[in-house]
Design brief:
The chain has 200 residues and is an all-beta fold. The chain is extended. The protein contains no helices and 13 strands.
């Protein structure tokens, strides 16, 4: 078993210092993917089985003595599977749609894998000088009790290309969710952003 540790030191009545030891456990992965096109619709399926090492976390507060130490297994050796499947299509009038199902994002592991449905729509105007992109993500891990754990993210982006090598983008993201979802933790921070890219 591997161990990661967090030591909490009391500096003053209003201040603590945390000394954390972080590890990167060895991880064996077996995966496969398929992709193709059918009736002008692109499709893909990717799957991977992860075989993790067992990892325990030890949290201690030295100022409170030996009794203030706790150890818990945070990653078991049980294998788990991540999956991505989706399709994309470009309509005759130029609009593009991409729909994916994702079981387990890159930062998720073990039995804490969530399900994500990702939709992206894009349309070009004025000979691709202006592009409008809309995106939506729905997250849950409890289909039978979805009202208690879900997350939603909506993205709107307007891209302007005054020249072939310059991209100027203005976007906004709306985030909401409940429970222990990824988006629930970010629901108070709907960002608006500006991006610029120059290619040489």
């Amino acid at each position: 078993m591997l161990y990661t540790e967090a030591v909490i030191n009391v500096v003053s009545p209003t201040e603590i210092a945390i000394d954390a030891t972080v590890i990167l456990p060895e991880l064996h992965v077996a995966g496969a993917d398929l992709a193709g096109e059918l009736f002008s619709v692109g499709w893909w399926v990717e799957a991977a089985v992860f075989f993790p090492q067992e990892v325990a976390m030890v949290v201690s507060v030295p100022a409170l003595g030996a009794a203030a130490t706790d150890e818990a297994v945070i990653l078991h050796t049980d294998p788990y599977t991540k999956l991505t499947a989706g399709f994309d299509y470009t309509f005759p009038w130029g609009s593009y749609v991409n729909l994916q199902y994702v079981h387990g994002l890159f930062a998720e592991r073990g039995d804490a894998l969530h399900d994500y449905f990702v939709l992206r729509l894009r349309h070009d105007f004025f000979d691709k000088k202006l592009t409008l992109t809309n995106g939506a993500v729905f997250e849950t891990d409890a289909f039978e009790d979805v009202e208690d754990l879900y997350g939603v993210s909506l993205t709107y982006e307007l891209l302007y290309k005054p020249f072939d090598n310059i991209d100027l983008a203005l976007g906004h993201v709306l985030i909401d969710g409940v429970g222990a979802s990824l988006f629930a933790n970010m629901r108070h921070g709907d960002p608006t952003y500006v991006k610029a890219k120059v290619s040489f």
